[in-house]
Amino acid sequence: MTLSRRDLLLSTAGLAAGAALGPFAGGPPALAQAAPKYEPEKGATLRLLRWAPFVKGEEDAWLANTKKFTEATGVEVRIDKESWEDIRPKAAVAANVGSGPDIVWVWFDDPFQYPDKLMDVSELANYLGGKYGGWYPGPESYTRKDGKFIALPLAAIGNALCYRESWVKEAGFSEFPKDTKGFLELCKALKAKGHPAGFAHGKAVGDGNNYAHWLLWSHGGRTVDEKGKVAINSPETIAALKYARELYQTFIPGTESWLDVNNNRAFLAGEISLTANGVSLYYSAKNDPKLADLAKDIRTTQLPVGPVGKPVELHQTTSAAIFKYTKYPKAALAYLQFMYEKPQMDAWLLGASAYCCQTLKAFAGNPVWTSDPNHAPYAKASETLRPNGYAGPLGPASAAVMADYVLVDMFAEAATGQRSPEEAAKRAEQRISRAYRG
């Protein structure tokens, strides 16, 4: 979509060259709520800290939208990138010292680690929710505390199985198994054919956490109950750990040290037959002429259903938060409002090629979701995700458990034989108890 400068001036909520700007383009609000108007402070500049992209088109679209905002308002926006693993400590340090980026893209329930350091963005969040069909409950739960928004849900990065169709058929399976029992048999058959599987058991923010939570939930386990009482040491968790141990025998060596880039590299190098990843893995092959044959062989599907009897998955969830220490709060609000409005959000989702799933329901109709069959498992990530603090409320305790990789460590210990399933569950119970006592 090409917008003229006049269109931009009409679509931003700040001031351009000192003139008040009207509501964004994109249709009338769903509710009778006027667009908030944030006038950027004189001489305002902003700094955004985001995670390093896995899809170049996603970053390109965000940068293009940012350029439009600067052209419309005169507010320069510096965008810094950090690895996925480094975002969490960098944001925590900035919150504690009161200096650094104005806006940060955070993971999961990280905002609950320093809620008093974040701006209340409820006015903007309520306006966007009212205009664009409401927020999906899962992503929204990561940004609300005591009835207020302390961040804006930005995206759920869908997690699905990526596999080599020809190798699955070579292993004797005409269809991909839909349950965990059949999935284990497939992985055993693939290993026998010289095509091992590979899932991250290391401290991978996305893939390690997504895999560990799926293992736990698919067998009926949970970290805490509805009241926040620690519930990890259960027969269901033990069953999940025993399953993980069996599955690990079908893996390529070394997955206990994998971060979010490692399974991508192994899959693209032909070293593994399947893994769980975002759609970026598919596009890494599709966009490389040398990997054209591999790209044609890639298929995607949801993770198999376990004994619990229904799909239960964690998807990487990211939110945009503004630190209270920013010198330019109105400029920061104007920037986020601009980026969430329809012309910009649609362009970003399209540029992300199904890597980022919308957090506002009205954007579910974006054509990206029907443009390729391999996008289908990622299309409902925001709708289906289960928050990592399940079954208790999100808060500082759930954020601490996630930040400390308790579940990732528990499964890695049991899968590799470092501890028995019972020992691994007991250690996780101790670690979770410390977080929830605090």
Automatic annotation (TrEMBL):
How far does the signal peptide extend, from start to end residue? 1-25
Biased segments, Basic and acidic residues type: 420-432
Q: What are the start and end residues of every segment in region (Disordered)?
A: 418-438
Q: Which UniProt keywords apply?
A: Periplasm, Signal, Transport
The family classification in the record reads: Belongs to the bacterial solute-binding protein 1 family.
UniProt protein name: ABC transporter substrate-binding protein
Where mainly found? Answer: periplasm
Task: Name the Gene3D superfamilies on file.
Answer: Periplasmic binding protein-like II
Q: Does the keyword Signal apply?
A: yes
Localization terms from the record: Periplasm
Origin, by domain of life? Answer: Bacteria
